[in-house]
Amino acid sequence: MTDTDMPSISSPTASGAPLALIFDLDGTLVHSVPDLTVALNHLLAEHDRPAVAEDDVAFMVGDGARVLVQRAWAHTGAAAAEDDLDGLTERFVAIYETATAGATQPYPGVVATLETLKARGHPLAVCTNKPHGATLKLLEELDLARFFTAVVGGGSTPERKPQAGPVLAVLAEMGVPARGALFIGDSRNDVRAAAAAGVPCACVTYGYPRGPVEALGADRLIDHFDQVLDLVDAGADMDLQKKV
Known about the structure:
Layout: E1 20-23, E2 30-31, H1 33-46, H2 54-58, H3 65-75, H4 82-97, E3 105-106, H5 110-119, E4 124-131, H6 132-141, E5 150-154, H7 165-174, E6 181-185, H8 188-197, E7 201-204, E8 220-222, H9 227-234
Parallel strand pairs: 1-4, 1-6, 4-5, 6-7, 7-8
Antiparallel strand pairs: 2-3
Helix pairs in contact: 1-4, 3-4
């Protein structure tokens, strides 16, 4: 999607309805790698595997729990047998759900920005590959659930990002057309899923992109979460970095 093709990002939309905002979770709304690392290292220790560092885990997240476990196994020795992955993933999720918010915190500006957007009447949603149950638990524990009218997590739809299905499910639940929404994420999965659903996408520069964020193909880049308000207020011609 080019700047020319991208619908104007403004508030309200051309239809008169406030722009809907769809957010990725890990690396966008919250810094969750510390708790993911603790849970992953617990699982690895149960199987006599060496621990992984937070910096390593930051490059493993984004594709759901099963892929995270698969990458951790490959990083610490022999790859996990395909027949073992379901059991390992189930155990990892069980460990993680006992302490989803032990050290996880919203990024600076997230709470205040969500409060402003909600007060202005913008429909807000979360679309993530994190397991759906863990997503709901984390949002509740961090007192973020109150902001969102729709939450789609991994396993709650047949597809995962980068497929369009999760984004389309969010749009349907909110009752919003694709051109009445904006996706905010941090990874190529977010950019591709949004594009496949016909939704423009901005990426934060502080998340878990697994590569140069400038190369993700996002329509816009923002350095701090409160710039979401600039994005909504100023429209497509705002003074923020555009896609290269």
